[in-house]
């Protein structure tokens, strides 16, 4: 009530005997619920603000949050609120839906439920994006089915070769074969000089058949290339997003909001929360903090080092840096993992790749 910090027991005793303390007690006696509700609300606001700012939606021990709360010398004591113990307060948070609460052998654990309008908007945007992915996949499946039906109809239109039995009339002239024992057997040779028509016909047939085969192969290649390009465009569209953080990459702090000890320093992304926030650790020390992706930027290593693709159709793939184009602010990489292993990507933007942490 008095909001006064006494220095020792004697000071507390003198204060309880003072006129100001007696006056505050009279005010409290007139309407105790008003003051208890006010102190309870103030305690709740400060506690939830600390939980959201320090731990986010991460699951954490309730006593750890409370110890950080009371480390502030100007904090409001729990004995001034409607809750007598921390356990009672944690149960109340779970009943009112402020936090997710669970009890284990080690004690009570809580995790903050983020109902911020911006967070809800981001979640709705993610839902819409997932729905668009499903729609694009359905369109692709329908296109593939139509292509298969077209190929089947095309194959049916080609008449099948029919084989018939050889028949000979009785009036036909009989063919008599005579064999001579003298000399060696020789293969019949067609004289192209005497029969130019035979040579011309054979050449025409060979060239026409080879041309037809070449045209069919070119058409198949063209159709296959179109399908591959369309699949890549769809995969690029549905995989492209406005967030790029990933665990295990190395980034650079570009904002002073994280403190002077982090500014312009390289950090390792340890854990990603809600796509836009990450727990980062300084490379030089074990000091950690939570940072938004707008306070970070990607790091391009030396040629020959490993990077991770952070956005686009090949998001999540590890790659090897082959070349850096300073004029177009892009790089050339070769994928070294996953189903796209060995594929070379050119013109990848700086912000779509970042250096990988060296595993020891």
TrEMBL record:
Keywords: Coiled coil, Metal-binding, Zinc, Zinc-finger
Chain ranges of the DNA/RNA-binding protein Kin17 WH-like domain: 23-149
Coiled-coil zones: 127-154
Gene label: KIN
Organism listed in the record: Caerostris darwini
Name of the molecule in the record: DNA/RNA-binding protein Kin17 WH-like domain-containing protein
Residue span of region Disordered: 200-221
Protein family: Belongs to the KIN17 family.
Gene Ontology molecular functions: double-stranded DNA binding; zinc ion binding
Compositional bias ranges of the Low complexity kind: 200-212
């Amino acid at each position: 009530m008095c909001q006064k910090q006494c220095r020792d027991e004697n000071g507390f005793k003198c204060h309880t005997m003072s006129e100001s303390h007696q006056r505050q007690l009279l005010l409290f006696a007139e309407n105790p619920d008003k003051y208890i509700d006010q102190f309870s609300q103030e305690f709740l606001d400060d506690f939830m603000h600390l939980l959201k700012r320090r731990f986010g939606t991460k699951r954490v021990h309730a006593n750890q949050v409370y110890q950080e709360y009371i480390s502030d010398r100007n904090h409001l004591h729990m004995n001034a609120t409607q809750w007598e113990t921390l356990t009672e307060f944690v149960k109340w948070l779970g009943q009112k839906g402020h936090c997710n609460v669970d009890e284990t052998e080690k004690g009570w654990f809580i995790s903050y439920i983020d109902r911020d309008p911006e967070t809800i908007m981001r979640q709705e945007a993610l839902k819409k994006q997932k729905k668009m992915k499903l729609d694009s996949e359905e369109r692709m499946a329908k296109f593939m089915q139509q292509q298969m039906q077209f190929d089947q109809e095309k194959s049916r239109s080609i008449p099948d070769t029919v084989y018939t039995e050889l028949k000979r009339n009785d009036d036909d002239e009989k063919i008599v074969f005579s064999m001579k024992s003298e000399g060696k057997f020789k293969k019949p040779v067609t004289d192209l000089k005497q029969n130019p028509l035979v040579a011309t016909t054979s050449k025409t047939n060979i060239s026409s058949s080879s041309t037809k085969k070449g045209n069919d192969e070119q058409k198949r290649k063209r159709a296959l290339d179109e399908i591959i390009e369309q699949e890549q465009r769809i995969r690029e569209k549905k995989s492209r997003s406005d967030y790029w953080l990933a665990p295990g990459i190395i980034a650079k702090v570009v904002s002073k909001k994280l403190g002077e000890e982090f500014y312009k320093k390289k950090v390792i992304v340890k854990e990603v929360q809600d796509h836009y926030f990450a727990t980062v650790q300084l490379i030089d020390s074990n000091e950690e903090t939570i940072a938004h992706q707008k306070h970070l930027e990607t790091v391009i290593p030396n040629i020959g080092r490993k990077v991770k693709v952070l956005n686009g159709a090949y998001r999540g793939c590890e790659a090897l840096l082959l070349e850096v184009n300073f004029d177009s602010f892009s790089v050339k990489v070769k994928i070294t993992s996953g189903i796209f292993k060995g594929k070379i990507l050119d013109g990848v933007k700086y912000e779509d790749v970042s250096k990988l942490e060296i595993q020891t």
